[in-house]
């Protein structure tokens, strides 16, 4: 498929936005009384181009890949876990598997490269690039061809979601050491120090966090000559992080709303927006995670997260948890009586 990361993005429907906003003022409640739920319904109306948005059909793509920087002992878990979790996804035992079933969502897993390869599995798409990225303390994480393939893998997942008439897209990730990659990417894009953004990831202690910070410092020094956001993504990202960025860009180009997950997914979102600013209106942010740098990423994207639950799992789990809340926002918008219908006096 043809995919140009710099290609034009669709614009939200201003008419649908204004119609939805006007409809909110007619409902039997004080203006703004439902807070962020009103904002979400209006935003979805603009993105879906209809005054009454829907979120019946959710598409979830989880991208799995390993990272060369895992050799620097930056994760509390062994690298074999990435491939093992791919099998767990296929068997329906992961958190996102349970959430997808409860939501009635379509769930696909895209395996981009794992050191521990579980082989062909049902429900797992093999879009193999390599066993892992390079250790970005020593070389760019991806060469140009690998970056292009990862971006395209994300765009292809989005194309499947679009062809499946999804109402919204959720991107998840799995990859041991990918919190380190996301931290390095965020530090480079925001010109922030690792001390301000690096957190515990999957459960590092204080010594582990300090080690992660030192690794990110080395990576930033090595790749200080990166020329733009796409170059930064290739040098410091991961296959799954680039796939998320590609999916987000493709979503904006096709006009499909995205519900963004946690720290790693938000780092990918920042990269996507820096590559193509037209992506930003299509992103809804589900939650602020427990990871130290997530709030700073949300601030950089001028984003307000719907939830704050102390999550730090990834997989798209936080975005999936937000779906029922967003569905309720749509139901309230569509099904509440107006003052006139209810015979209720206005202020």
UniProtKB/TrEMBL annotation:
It catalyses: 5,6-dimethylbenzimidazole + nicotinate beta-D-ribonucleotide = alpha-ribazole 5'-phosphate + nicotinate + H(+). Catalyzes the synthesis of alpha-ribazole-5'-phosphate from nicotinate mononucleotide (NAMN) and 5,6-dimethylbenzimidazole (DMB). Its EC number is 2.4.2.21. The keyword Transferase applies. One of its GO terms (biological process) is cobalamin biosynthetic process. It comes from the Bacteria. HAMAP family: CobT. This is Nicotinate-nucleotide--dimethylbenzimidazole phosphoribosyltransferase. The active site is at 315 (proton acceptor). The keyword Lyase does not apply. Belongs to the CobT family. The lineage of its organism: Bacteria, Pseudomonadati, Pseudomonadota, Gammaproteobacteria, Lysobacterales. Pathway: Nucleoside biosynthesis; alpha-ribazole biosynthesis; alpha-ribazole from 5,6-dimethylbenzimidazole: step 1/2. Keywords: Cobalamin biosynthesis, Glycosyltransferase, Transferase. GO terms for molecular function: nicotinate-nucleotide-dimethylbenzimidazole phosphoribosyltransferase activity.
